[in-house]
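Note to self: keep these together.
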Amino acid sequence: MNFKLTTEQEMIKKMVRDFTEKEVAPYDAEIDRKGEFPWEIIKKMSETGLFGISFPEEYGGAGADAVCEAITLEELARGSGSVSITLNAHMLCAHPILQFGTEEQKKKYLPDLVAGKKLGAFALTEPVAGSDAAGIQTTATLDGDEYILNGQKTWITNFSVADIVLVAAKTDPKAGPKGISVFIVEKGTPGFIVGDKEDKMGIRGSDTGELIFDNCRIPRENLLGKEGQGFKIAMVALDSGRFGIGAMGVGIAQHAMEEAIKYAKERVAFGKPIAKFQAVQFMIADMAMEIQAARNLVYQAAFKRDNGERFTVDAAMAKLFASEIAMKTTKNAIQIFGGYGYSREYPVERLLRDAKILEIGEGTSEILRMVIGGSVLR
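Structure:
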């Protein structure tokens, strides 16, 4: 077993870190303050090829592996949670098309998604169906050569900026999870309505809100996979999304630890830097240990995806552990900063606000413990 990154992985890590430090991190405080979508950064990400890191070269991607995808999300999150989650949500659209789409669908949609010329989103969550994904109420009724979509989605990342949205809907309301299908819906389709934007606690630069489908007619050929396969598609997509959220947690925690170390070396109390006090050293030691453990879990899940192994439980562990470590690390970073940590003059309070959503989105900590526990107790 080799824990050393490959030459390609090291190159991508350096490239994304350099990009983040120059083009992302300096603007995150302003992004958070204004709550505006970072279009200029997204454009530069597209030009740099970050949207296509883990996609085949035949569709314009770099052909790198899932570990490189995790590295990219981690390094971006080290500079901005808003930017990183935008890419992760985009992947939730592009990867299912790559995995389940027809050749015609792949050729039509993937080149622009992989190039970052168009953004993607996955619309699953509804006002009455969050953790209970099988409880969605959006319907898709076949009418000749078209499906008619009706329903409402909420808490959709990239909701108003996405050009292509995967929408989960019930084609057979009586069949439970087996009655769910997924459709490729293009922005601008009549009946596709962009609703209200959420005014969020954290990751305030990400685009989050509701989508409404009012007799939205889409071509029959825009069905992704087969009818009744939608729940499976959603769960497979969430597996990748979860290790992506885990990577975000690692990046946010890494940033918080770095800020805490820098401050602890500079802040003097009782005649010496607070980094010399055992209480502070122990907090930072725990940060370093737990961040590395979280990173290993994320890379393990990504490695299994690359090797075609089932990684549902691995992704759940990575997401659960990394998100909780992100919260713990940011909270303790604020403690090290003392009163200054509570001020918006310093970044650690923003990092804590950004970290919180990681324990909720794409499977709450409670749901993921059920996934892991159910597997262990089988």
